[in-house]
Amino acid sequence: QAGATTEAETFDLVIAANRLPVDKVVLDDGTVEWQRSPGGLVTAMESVMAGREGAWVGWTGQPGDEADAPFHNEGIYLRPVALTADEIAAYYEGFSNDTLWPIYHDVIVPATFHRAWWSAYEAVNRRFADAVCEVAAPGAVVWIHDYQLQLVPALVRAQRQDVRIGWFNHIPFPPVELFAQLPWRKRVLAGLLGADFLGFQRVADAKNFVRACRQLGGWQTKGQNVVVADPPREHRIVRAAAVPISIDTQGLAELANRPETRARARELRASLGNPEVLMLGVDRLDYTKGIRHRLKAYEELLDDGQIAPPDVTFVQIATPSRERVEAYRQLREEVELTVGRINGNHSVIGAPAVHYIHHGYPREEMVALFLAADVMVVTPLRDGMNLVAKEYVASRTDYGGALVLSEFTGAYHELHQAFVCNPHDIEGLKNAMLHAIQTPADQKRRIMRALRRRVMAHDVQRWAARFLADLTGTS
Ligand code: ADP
Ligand code: G6P
């Protein structure tokens, strides 16, 4: 339950992320509701913070000139940071999601550069740093998250030499050739180097960062370490290493084992006409997720007559995302056009070829969907980790189902026993889908057993403990 608080409190653990774990929603009658924010960062950090005492600094998801008062929510102290409508356009939709996001995801769509967006990014990062310093107790651990807040580490260090500063990147860090395009590249690197420890999803991401420091910034590097001049001391070492994120495996498995979740999974299948093969995609509606490639492969399999409804059906759940950014608008149009065409050509009455749903679902319903799906299709063109892939595996306590997984996800590096695909290779993707459908059940169970061993042994609490140990130097 949300409860307002007036006292200024300080904490030994402070995390900062662009979004708070809950979004403010103002209803038509003016009443305010707080709903869970979208995305993998919130999924992971919500679990991590549930067992700890700490503060979370972030934006409420609404425009405003003044910050809402801090409040406690499910045991966490939430410290809102205000963003005006102009700042949302320039810092969030602009620099974060139309400049950095494309560069950090292989320039799947072109990046846009505007100096005014950079200024807004600097100003908002400064505001986040001030808020962090306000709630950090002496000697606190400060854990900053993701690409929206890359200047915060140095801005906090400038004010507070007593705190320990870590940063974790939930998305990829680009190869130096792409990062080099960013006109403010050296200032971004200097911002990050304000941290004591930098965590990345893959070894390759950490290496890309260290290489960028050496080649574009002229910093001295050695292995995982970057040497930073730090007067009056001679120098300071910043370490950059891979700490791949995970999920609340136990919580999901418990949910999956509940009789009511299993009953709901059966009910979902029945309402889809009990197809022989239910294929499922679950993503934010983002061009990095390869939704168009997935639909193209599926459409060709239908065109070729290799599969057909009512035996086979596809459920695509696409959460609305960043809807004021042009590339996202275009993606939505293309996906909806494609779904319309596929259904027009291939549906039979009572059995559509694709069920397309443009909204999110509560966790219980997601787990029921995972349990109902015979083939989970995860086809990003680039993705830091992809928690959905791990969630599917964790939910399959029955060892059923099959995972089609893109090589371009962080998850692939842990789950290569899956039905692996290169989503750019449409023939290969079609084959991976068919293979996942046609492989005998006992072989699929063996694969799922291997995938589960990996996911169950590395959960999000272990990830957080490892990050914090790396940060505080106890590892
Ligand atoms: P990203 O962080 O890029 O959105 P991830 O796969 O890492 O991608 O994390 C997405 C998170 O959001 C997962 O926890 C997933 O279960 C959740 N999610 C994604 N789509 C939906 C949806 N349509 N409804 C509810 N939850 C969703
Ligand atoms: C990814 C990013 C997060 C972001 C989330 C949702 O998980 O790593 O930083 O919060 O997507 O995107 P949004 O723009 O809605 O916050």
From TrEMBL:
The keyword DNA-binding does not apply. InterPro entries: Glyco_trans_20 (IPR001830). CDD domains: GT20_TPS (cd03788). Gene3D superfamilies: Glycogen Phosphorylase B (3.40.50.2000). GO terms for biological process: trehalose biosynthetic process. This is Trehalose-phosphate synthase. Pfam families: Glyco_transf_20 (PF00982). It comes from Nostocoides japonicum T1-X7. Its EC number is 2.4.1.-. Keywords: Glycosyltransferase, Transferase. One of its GO terms (molecular function) is alpha,alpha-trehalose-phosphate synthase (UDP-forming) activity. Belongs to the glycosyltransferase 20 family. The keyword Manganese does not apply. It is an enzyme of class 2 (transferase).
